[in-house]
Amino acid sequence: MPLDHTANPSIVSLIRLAQTGDMAAFTELVRVSRRRIFGNIARLIARPEDVEDVAQEVFLRMHGSIRQLLTPEAFDVWLWRLTSNAAYDYLRKRPRRREIRISDLLEDQVDAATDSASCQLAREERDRRRTIDYVDSLLAQLSPSDRILLVMREVEGLSMDELSAVLGINVGAVKLRLFRARNRMRKLLSADQVRPWRVGTATAAAQSA
After folding, report:
1. What is the pLDDT of residues 3-26, one digit of tens each?
2. Spatial separation of the C-alpha atoms in residues 165 and 68, rounded to whole Å
3. Which among 21, 87, 139, 175 is placed 20 to 30 Å from 120, CA to CA?
4. pTM score, two decimals?
5. How far apart are the first and last CA of the chain?
6. Best-predicted range by mean pLDDT (69-83, 87-101, 180-194)
7. Could you give the CA distance from residue 77 to residue 7 in angstroms, rounded to a whole number?
């Protein structure tokens, strides 16, 4: 979601107290930020099982650098920067994920979902999961910096100015990086359209017509 840029007075007070070493204030700051941090990390790395580990790293970085935040009103931008940097480090250190598709599921699992009491909901959830897995499989083939940039822009809806503030580069550089990241994503999409399993499916359909 777009950044607020200006923290509310109660958050500013918590930040200032945390900067003095007040652990109670810092703990409360973590509490009020926790949900947002977890949500942002989940969208950046797309691995639910690792979200908490990355979040703990963000909290450690918050504690270690809170005194360096010169303008408490810029807390949102600062927090996004910590979060994106932690996600980047996580993605850079991990091997790229194997591509996951609905065809990887056991047939009886699909049948069980289809035959459930809520058949329509099961199909919709399966389609939603398939779309998410497919998009994530493409994002996983990008560099960590490209992935994070595309998620912040296309999923979270950060503006060019907000991306500039989070990444610490000027708007022109953001536009150039975004242009290149989108081009790399388009190439992945184009390549995916001509994968052998797709061609084979199309050929079989044409022969049976």
Report:
1. 655 567 888 999 999 999 999 999
2. 16
3. 139
4. 0.66
5. 47
6. 69-83
7. 10
Amino acid, single-letter form, for residue 182? R
Look at residue 197 in the predicted model and tell me its pLDDT: 41
Q: Are the C-beta atoms of residues 150 and 117 closer than 8 Å to each other?
A: no
Q: Which fold has domain 9-97+140-208?
A: Rna Polymerase Sigma Factor; Chain: A (1.10.1740)
Listing DSSP states for the chain in one string gives ----SS--HHHHHHHHHHHTT-HHHHHHHHHHHHHHHHHHHHHHH--GGGHHHHHHHHHHHHHHHGGG-S-GGGHHHHHHHHHHHHHHHHHHHSPPPPP--GGGS-HHHHHHHHTSSSHHHHHHHHHHHHHHHHHHHHHTTS-HHHHHHHIIIIIS---HHHHHHHHTS-HHHHHHHHHHHHHHHHHHHHHHHT-HHHHHHHHHHHHH-
pLDDT at 142: 85
pLDDT tens column, 148-162: 999 889 888 899 999
Residue 83 CA, distance from chain mean position:
10
